[in-house]
Specification:
The protein has 3 helices and 8 strands; from the N terminus they run E-E-E-E-E-H-E-E-H-H-E. By secondary structure, it is an alpha+beta fold. The protein has one domain: Phosphatase 2c, domain 1 (4-Layer Sandwich).
């Protein structure tokens, strides 16, 4: 399994997000209060499937300490169980992320990568993207050069 992670540091403040789905599952938000919620993205038509397809947006605001998770259906459709005949599912994902909330984008990706590794090989793609708002402003220190 290969996972790519790109981390950026943003200053703590609310971030407004507007999403449109091109056939992907609903986004998940890990809230600073210790729970997780789905952000339904209505429509969900596959991009390019119809020439006149309309896409609708969903909006939310991420407060400091909150993380938005976008994922491909390879996560929720991963085969589980002793005979690998069950799907992981959205309910299990919501429960898993609630247990990890609040969490930074990096922490969410690490936790989900571990979860996916526990499932073994999967025939479907399990792409993950997390965007988080830091919970606290870092203390600015003196501008010094490291000793040589």
């Amino acid at each position: 399994m290969r996972v790519t992670l790109d981390g950026r540091r943003l200053e703590p403040s609310d971030i407004s997000i507007r999403l449109a789905s091109g056939g992907h599952p609903p986004a998940l938000i890990l809230r600073a209060g210790g729970h997780a919620d789905f952000l339904p993205t209505p429509g969900g038509m596959l991009v390019g499937a119809l020439p006149d397809a309309r896409f609708y947006t969903a909006a939310t605001t991420l407060a400091p300490g909150e993380t938005l998770l976008l994922y491909a259906d390879g996560l929720t459709e991963a085969r589980t169980g002793p005979r690998r005949d069950s799907l992981y599912g959205e309910d299990a994902l919501l429960e898993f992320t609630t247990r990890h909330a609040p969490a930074s984008a990096r922490e969410v990706i690490i936790a989900l990568t571990g979860l996916l590794a526990g499932f073994g090989d999967s025939p479907d793609a399990a792409a993950l993207l997390a965007l988080g708002v830091p919970s606290a402003r870092p203390h600015p220190g003196p501008a010094t050069n490291p000793p040589r």
